[in-house]
Amino acid sequence: MKGNMDNQYVIGVDVGGTKVAYGLFNAGHKLVDRLQHPTDNAANGPQFSDTLINNIKKLMQKYNLTFEQLDGVGIGMPSFINRETGHIFMTSAMPKIKDFSMLEYVQSRLPTRIVLDNDANAATLAEHRHGAGRGKKHMVYIVVGTGFGSGIIINNEVFSGSYGGAGECGHMLMTPNDGHMCGCENAGCFMSYISGRTLPERVEHGLRNGAKSVLNPKTVDGRQLLKAYNNDDGLAQELIKQMANSIALCVYNVYQMLNIDTYVFGGGLTALGDALFTPMREAFDRFNHVPFPVHFKLAELKEDMGIIGAAEYIFSI
Question: What pTM value is reported for the model?
């Protein structure tokens, strides 16, 4: 039962492959404060959940908030989740968080409403309501960052599928059993060719195969990749071209399946800009032979997208 909404707050938690962000929102949906810390990729389900719980309490204590003043906590996890039960089947970025009833665990330790969903779904909801997808009845959000995945809006609602796993385009297979192994326990999925997480492995593979490059697999990130690309580094150019073609192929397949006309792109690797998106668009247009407009947009909400979307799950209830 909700109390006086003027005094109610909501916390949104965005869990990514490299960082965890927490946002405290007031009843007017305004972000009051945020905190973040690096993701512990080696933690198991209970260990990671305890970290979330402690930081949620820390954020509340900073503002002397009681649980009577907290309307709920929304959590976006980079996991395959049954949204109805809150059971996590697997988490490719954190392989020890699998077969874990996270919603039950957190709910038993925090006396407030908890909603747990996939992080891409949370970001999708945020962009649809407050960002580049405003006014679109149907939309696909695609995150290109540490991971690679998507969320789907159909008839103005997040579409989760039968078991809560809809939108995991990153784990659709591109080259089955041939390619880099992913945390989804398959080799050759789209994420293994596109995500920042596998970039060091792809750089190392190129160097082993004779490529000359300034890229160092131990330190490479999106900024270094773009700098090398702009300096005509052959391996950097090949990797970005490969990413562009892979994303275009994935989006084209999604378009053929769902016939949705709007694709919003977010995540850290969107900073590659025209180097990535110009060849990606060109590749998509080569695949597509149907003369209807298909819109590619960049996400508008930037780093707070995930916490906004997670909080929206509570505001929606």
Answer: 0.86
